[in-house]
């Protein structure tokens, strides 16, 4: 566990070099992070994460390169924080503009919207005969019997095309890294 208390770094089983690096570099690193982040609480969290990583990797770091290593880790930590902030801001904007106040988080709603858009684009890549069946089934909620009747096609043909469409969709999603597999 790492805690920052009045210019001291408290790490369970900390390495002596971590403490001396903290004493030497924490003030300038904190100032640098404050210039980027401008949120003192978040800066303290990022500084804590940076020195925790130092303590974990201290044995594999050249002692002459600790300062550069700390800045590289702090940059990565602040960039990660920035990406999280962007996602949160985009999520809130989406929620505000769409007015869909549900129990789901804005991030989850935005990710769903993005998945729906990706799915729509992937559907457009299917052959027309398969695409029609998928849309009738999932967008209009028709049964396979109703689809067969509407398309004036045998039920077996509709089912075969749906199976082929689902297989194609899965291959596209996996190939394009649009889903976990």
Description:
It is a single chain. With 181 residues, the chain is mainly α. The chain is 72% helix and 4% strand. It has 7 helices and 2 strands. The protein has helices spanning 16-37, 40-57, 66-98, 106-123, 128-138, 144-151, 155-175; strands at 2-5, 8-11. Strands 1-2 form a two-stranded antiparallel ribbon. Helix 2 (40-57) crosses helix 3, helix 3 (66-98) packs across helix 4 and helix 6 (144-151) crosses helix 7. It is elongated and about 80 Å long. Residues 6-12 have low confidence and may be disordered.
User: Biggest sheet, strands in spatial order?
Assistant: 1-2
Provide the helix percentage.
over 70%
Q: Give the distance, in angstroms, between the N- and C-terminal Cα atoms.
A: 34 Å
Q: Which overall shape is indicated by the principal axes computed on the Cα atoms?
A: elongated
Order of helices and strands: EEHHHHHHH
> Which percent range describes the beta-strand content?
under 5%
Number of helices: 7
Task: Flag low-confidence runs.
Answer: 6-12
What Rg do the Cα atoms give?
Answer: 26 Å
> How many strand units?
2
The biggest beta sheet reads: 2 strands, antiparallel
Mean pLDDT across every amino acid position: 81
User: Which structural category fits the helices and strands?
Assistant: mainly alpha
**What kind of oligomer do you see?**
single chain
């Amino acid at each position: 566990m790492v805690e920052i208390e009045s210019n001291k770094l408290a790490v369970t089983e900390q390495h002596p070099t971590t403490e001396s690096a903290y004493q030497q570099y924490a003030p300038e690193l904190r100032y640098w992070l404050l210039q980027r982040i401008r949120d003192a609480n978040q800066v303290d969290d990022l500084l804590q994460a940076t020195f925790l990583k130092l303590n974990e990797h201290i044995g594999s770091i050249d002692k002459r390169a600790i300062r550069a290593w700390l800045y590289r880790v702090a940059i990565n930590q602040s960039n990660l924080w920035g990406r999280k902030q962007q996602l949160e801001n985009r999520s809130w904007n989406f929620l505000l503009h769409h007015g869909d106040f549900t129990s789901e988080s804005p991030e989850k709603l935005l990710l769903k919207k993005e998945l729906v858009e990706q799915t729509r684009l992937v559907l457009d890549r299917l052959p027309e005969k398969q695409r029609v069946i998928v849309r009738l089934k999932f967008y209009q909620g028709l049964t396979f019997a109703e689809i067969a009747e509407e398309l004036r096609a045998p039920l077996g043909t509709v089912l075969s095309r749906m199976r082929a469409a689902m297989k194609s969709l899965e291959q596209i999603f996996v190939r394009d890294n649009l889903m976990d597999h």
